[in-house]
Amino acid sequence: MRSIALLALAAACLQAQDAPKLFYSKSFPGSTPAYMEIQLTEKGEVQYREAPGEDNPISFKLTAGETTQVFDIAGRLGHFDRELESGLPVARMGEKTFRWTRGAETREQKFNYSLDPDAQALLDWFERIGESSQRFIDLERTAQFDKLGVNRSILLLEALWDRGRLLGPDQFLPLLDKIAKQTAYLNMARERAARLAAIFRDPPPKPAAKENGKGK
């Protein structure tokens, strides 16, 4: 029985090593942040860093549907087997890297600006992950070191949610619950934190799409 268990464990480890992963980075000196990188597994596990090799990345999970969409776009791009750079004389917007790995196989493309609609769609997904992670970093920092700034941080988080760009809202629940319960924070911040936590736990249904001008 022990040998069977060890074989099963070894097989699981090999399978995990061969599972595809996506990597995105953007280096843009002078911007905030000047560098960011994101790793995404096919299980939806996200790691966000603002320095290469950072020991304590922001970690959360995408939903299964979101993960499928991201990996499907990467598949339509041939897992980065072709050049994505447009070559147009546009302003520098940061050097971006898309990388796909599976086991020992690696494919990578670097670009400043791409006209490929799938590259633009994938870039938007990674930018949404970055925006969501940056909102988490900001809320965590203000909750600890700038209690008067918490209300503004929650407003920015709420705005990201309202624009439909927030990913991994569950990661914010412990912070929002803490703010809502502690009298050290402004009442307006506590009330807004409680309301936003309730929305994240039970999101309202999306409005039905209008059909042929009806539903106005």
Structural class: alpha+beta
**How many angstroms separate the termini?**
66 Å
Spans where pLDDT lies below 50 across 5 or more residues: 5-14
Topology, number of strands? 6
Number of helices: 6
Radius of gyration: 20 Å
Helical percentage: 40-55%
- Main beta-sheet annotation: 6 strands, antiparallel
Overall geometric form: globular
As an assembly, this protein is: single chain
Portion of residues in beta strands equals 15-25%
- Number of separate domains: 1
What is the ordering of alpha helices and beta strands?
Answer: HEEEEHEEHHHH
Strand order of the largest sheet: 4-3-2-1-5-6
Chain-averaged pLDDT? 91
Overview of this structure, please?
- This protein is α+β, with helices and mostly antiparallel strands and 216 residues long.
- It has one domain.
- Strands 4-3-2-1-5-6 form a six-stranded antiparallel sheet, with helices on one face.
- Helix 2 crosses helix 3, helix 3 packs antiparallel against helix 4 and helix 4 packs parallel to helix 6.
- The termini are far apart.
Can you tag this structure with a few keywords?
216 residues, alpha+beta, 6-stranded antiparallel sheet, 6 strands, 18% strand, globular
Give the helix/strand layout.
Elements: H1 2-18, E1 21-27, E2 35-41, E3 45-49, E4 58-61, H2 64-76, E5 95-102, E6 105-111, H3 117-145, H4 150-162, H5 173-181, H6 187-201
Antiparallel strand pairs: 1-2, 1-5, 2-3, 3-4, 5-6
Helix pairs in contact: 2-3, 3-4, 4-6, 5-6
Provide a quick synopsis of the model.
This protein is of the alpha+beta class and 216 residues long.
